[in-house]
Specification:
β1 (about 15-20), α1 (about 25-35) and β2 form a beta-alpha-beta unit. This protein is α/β, with parallel strands linked by helices and about 160 residues long. A 5-stranded parallel beta sheet has the order 2-1-3-4-5, sandwiched between helices. The longest helix has 25 residues, at about 125-150. It has one domain (about 5-150): Rossmann fold, CATH 3.40.50. It is globular and about 40 Å long. The protein contains 6 helices and 5 strands; from the N terminus they run βαβαβααβαβα. It starts with 15 loop residues before the first strand and ends with a helix.
Length: about 160
């Protein structure tokens, strides 16, 4: 299946939203997991499209494959765009980095790459359980932060 053949969801206020930046094989697993967890999603075929979409949408989850569009971890344009964004903006999106060099759920690796979660590609069959756990932890961690901003009309 070609990424361009996948229907792009329309987001409404209150929807759980996500962006998938991955090859078709990993993307299929991610899409199935996100659907199961009640998320709507957009996919990006290129880094330029991913960046454009993040400029106009705030996604709850962004999944990026380390070698998205043939890049390496060091040359991943999408990740390089997202990492330096202001913290006020980043706190609303959980960024998941998928690659063969990671130890799944390793907080230090995630911290080193300025993301909330790293997943080894060999663990993708367990992605639903991994993402469900991590999403829950992310929600708990930033709950008070988001409530304070909301009460001050910031979001």
């Amino acid at each position: 299946m070609n990424i361009s053949d996948i229907r792009m969801d329309f987001f409404e206020a209150g929807d759980k939203t996500s962006l998938i930046c991955a090859d078709p094989n990993v993307g299929e697993i991610v899409r199935n997991t996100l659907r199961e967890l009640g998320f709507k999603f957009h996919t990006a075929e290129t880094s330029d499209l991913a960046i454009e979409r993040t400029r106009y949408n705030t996604y709850d989850i962004i999944v990026i494959q380390e070698n998205f569009t043939g890049s390496t971890l060091k040359t991943n344009v999408t990740l390089d765009y997202l990492v330096p964004l202001p913290m006020a903006q980043r706190r609303y999106s959980m960024i998941v980095l998928v690659g063969s060099a990671f130890k799944t759920l390793d907080a230090m690796q995630a911290f080193a790459h300025s993301v909330q979660l790293v997943v080894n590609t060999m663990d993708m069959p367990n992605f639903t359980a991994i993402l469900k756990k991590s999403w829950s932890e992310f929600q708990i961690l930033y709950k008070v932060y988001k409530e304070v901003f909301t009460s001050h009309g910031e979001r």
